[in-house]
Amino acid sequence: MKELIIAINFSLLLFIASISTKKTLNVLENSFMYLVLVFFVTGYTAVYYINLKLWSVADDPQLFLILRLYELIMIPLLCLWYFNLVEVCKTWLSRIVLTILMTGILGIVQLIMTYWEVIQYKNWQFWQSIVTFVVLLIVVRLLHVWFQSKLQKEGIK
Amino acid sequence: MTLPEHFDHNEWFVLTGVILSYLLVFLLPRRFPLSVILLVMLCAIVFARVLDHMMASPSLDLYDIMDKGNYELFDLVLYSFYAPFAYLYIYLFDKFNVKGIWTGLYILVWSLIAIGFERVNVYFGVFNYHGWKGAYSFPVYLAVQSFTLLFFLYIQHHYNHLKSTQDEP
User: Fold this and answer.
1) Which residue of B has its CA nearest to A60?
2) What are phi and psi of A121, to 5 degrees?
3) Nearest C-alpha in A relative to B68
4) Is B3 inside a domain boundary?
5) Which residue of chain B comes nearest to A63, CA vs CA?
6) Residue-wise pLDDT tens digits, B8-67
7) Which long-range contacts (CB under 8 A, 24 or more apart) does B113-116 make?
């Protein structure tokens, strides 16, 4: 129960912080990226635990609810923070530092999930999760650039 | 992601449906900017994905999609099938300038259409229920279609706002 309360509180705080702060990207870009992130995160977790059985997930309803918060709120919103912050970074060095920092944060959140036994690794190593996050950030960034080009053609910068 | 066990009636139904529905989208006169169309279509795909992920995953396992309970390649094709419906839904809403009490009726009619379409999907073996009932889908469609409409109005408002602020000298 303690885990569920912490996860709900963290998700709510993240949600409130995300909607109340001024963002560098516009609403259309943020909506696009959130939807893409949810699609990818629910997709790869399903492939990992249903198809490939590299993870097992908790059957306990409370822990299962935490997994849903993790997939639908925690990871997508943390990634959105990253994409908004990366626009502020002027130099490549600062972008690389931010990417490493965000990958670390995403990794820590996943470690907490494994500590709470929401996710249990089977034939899986933590570094593979880090690779997954890096690939996720790169793919979503590429899709964002593509969406930005469509917006620019329509006269929205 | 796995390939279909047998390429039979459910795969053919989805494939034909996807081709025909996207053809309809391309043939209809353009009514919205591409970015708005993309967002509405993506919203429909993600709604379907999230709801299936919650209700068809092994923990609840209320139904299977296509041949197996696994995440199949054709699940992705099926998700893309939802997008043209969402487009047509907002297209007609905008074209007929639906307002007030008619909005509720519009959502109700589309939810009934969705129920009918789901039955066709069940007939072709796209959805295999075990624990789920067709009647449960109705409130889900009511909620999803209301939210899709709200999302469309929200992004259209912001699109117009962004466009007007950037067009100013």
Assistant:
1) B59
2) -80, 135
3) A51
4) no
5) B59
6) 888 898 899 999 999 999 999 999 999 999 999 999 999 999 998 888 877 778 888 887
7) B114/B85, B114/B141, B114/B145, B115/B141
Instruction: Provide the pLDDT for residue B73.
Output: 83
Contact B148, B44 (CB under 8 A): yes
B112 Cβ contact list (under 8 Å, min separation 6): none
Q: What's the predicted TM-score (pTM) here?
A: 0.93
Give the helix/strand (H/E) hosting B156: helix B134-167
Closest by Cβ to B163, choosing from A46, A57, A156: A156
pLDDT at B157 over 70: yes
- B39 → closest Cβ in A28, A64, A68: A28
Asked if B166's CB is within 8 angstroms of A36's CB, the reply is no
Q: What is the dihedral of CA B151, B154, B156, B159, to 10 degrees?
A: -120
Residue A133 in tokens: 């996050």
Q: How many domains does chain B have?
A: 1
User: ∠ CA A85-A88-A92 to the nearest 5 degrees?
Assistant: 95
Helix A126-153 vs helix A27-46: crossing angle, to nearest 10: 150
What is the full DSSP assignment across A106-126? HHHHHHHHHHTTSEEESS--H
Q: What is the mean pLDDT of chain B?
A: 89
Inter-chain CB proximity B42 and A32 less than 8 Å: yes
